Amino acid sequence: MAAATNDFLGLLREHIATADRLFLSVRSAVAYGRSRQVFSTPVPYSVDLPISVPPDARLRLAVATRDTFFMEDLTGRADPVRFTVSLVRPSGETVVLAERTLAIRDRPADRRWIELNLDLARFAGEQAQLRLASVTPGTPTAPDKTFALWSRPYLVQPAASHEQPNLLFITIDACRADHLSAYGYARPTTPALDRLASEGIRFTRAYTNAPMTVPSLSQILTSRYFPTQASPTLMSSLFAAGVPRTKAIIRNPYLEFFLKLAARDSFDSVSSVTWRADRIAAKGLAWIDAQRGDRWALYLHFLDIHTPYRVRPPEGTRFADPAYRGPVGYGWGDVEGAQQGKYDAADRAQAMALYDSGLRFIDDQVAGLFDALRARGLLDRTLVVVSADHGEEFWDHGSFFHGVSLYDEQLHVPLIIRLPHAAHAGSVIDVPVRSIDIVPTIVDVLGAPSFPEFEGETLLPIIANPATAAPREDFARAANNAYPQRFALRTATHKLILTQQPFGESLFDLVADPGERHDLAADPAARAVLDGLRTRLDGYRAPYWSAGFQVRAVAPPGTTADVEVAITSNDDQLVVNPDRVGGDRPDTLQLARDSLAITWRGPVTDRPIGFRFDRVMGFHDDGGLTIRMRANGADLPPEAIVLGPDDQHPPASPFVYKVIGPTKVKAHEEPALLATTPPTPTAGSGGVRVYLWRVLEQAPAALGTPPTDEKTRERLRALGYVE
Ligand SMILES: [Zn+2]
Question: In the CATH scheme, what is the code of domain 8-158?
């Protein structure tokens, strides 16, 4: 993608992609105890970035010499580094804006970040080059231990920026809309959010795009159904807009994984904590107070009502029956107990009471935060957005927890927006909208640059004119390997749910049957609706069908073959995101329970059909995939197996596919499958052929299960990927 003007991190990423130099990176890194988005380079190094200088602008950035590398302390080793920031004007003249030399080996006072705040007013209107250069003065003695760190440079227009609002974005994990008193719930669970809604806009029909944290939050933050590591984020827009201070305080390891490893740009600082809402809200307020008038954006994520419930009595049992003595408590056993059908009506009521009590606990904390912002005169200068990553099922369809299905109790989320100066106060909007619309709306209100990659649309036109607004249909995907893979399309009147394993379709009339009780998929009267929704759902799935690993089988005209493809992981790297492509209904796609093998089987004609999947690439040696392809009960000969874009064949059948070398570097693989232009599957004269290829980058590979075990995290830390 083309980076937005003055989206320096985007430009640096593009530079790295073509620079062919080791140890260049843009990422979150900790130096001298501060987590920042950095451009890290060897020394010497120099890069020129196009810059369009607005009026009255200042350039802010910070520099430091890297203090650790692969867990090695560099403070006693690194050479001195001279940092130079200059502007190369259209005339060719080079103006040095700042020069600092940091010698961390010899001067302990240099073991810190040096903040630079540079006046660009005299260059207003120029299209110039910003040059970031580092050298070692004198003779280097430890060039392999010396690295320059540049924090994200940003342009700020102090006068103009002062008029733009701050951002407070809050997501509550597993918060179903109909348990908020603001949404008509009988218990007083959310008085503060009710008040926020009365001062803002409440969307009564907002639907998320996934029923699990992964991938819902990455979809929300990228405004994309299938985000990749290249997808710009909310944070990309905040950077491009020059919002000087950005921070996330979050409780959820999956979200931490996304923000620290997978998200393009990310916040200046991400605090991943195991705190309850009270501490997160208090830390958020302290951080806001520390900004002392600078414009800021703060993202908070609460986990208190995600089972197992952690808010203790008395707050945590506010709505519970004091006489309850059953098994529902504070452990993960609740999910197991519920799914094994062990819970009776009293147990279910207790689970719901703990959930509701936790929601009130969160609400009490945000009440304090909102009141503090009001008292400081900041609330009217801040855009406040509150939503959830997904809902929660309380046995609505016989189950407890989320990710299990795509019914509304898992997809219907709160969405409350308080605009600066309480514009449109008290609006209640019934037009169906989507979670991927949140970021385009935030960007619109903040006056920040949008990106063409955003698939959602701003909600401001709907807010201004709800009567004439068109409903937005919701595409949802349940991609967690613990549950069947599912897709759904929800229009204003109907929902189609498609289940992959085993294949099944359900159709609901949401007007006559909002509880989704009566499946109309087999009803002849609903045939036309079903066909129409299925075609549109296929359209949403199409990006999946052109990314990741792809398998297609095709038989000569006039023949039918029984084809089976079995792919088994030779190590612990998971197969994820399976989907059948163009499949006839009798075919089957089966992911093993441990997600280490996938099998597809079906009758194949001259129309190519097959499946797709992704593989979660680990940070360790690759054992590869063993691939076995059969037709009519016999192994296919190698010449009937077509690999990659150039009609190559494996040396044997079955065969092993391996990634060789660093998984972060493209296309070290054997045999080569990587294709930028996919092959066109055609049957050989002799019989069935099966094609296998792989499309890099566009695949939503980052949506796999993050490594949360301590050993893997230790490795990641050693590599500098996580703190
Ligand atoms: Zn979640």
Answer: 2.60.120.260
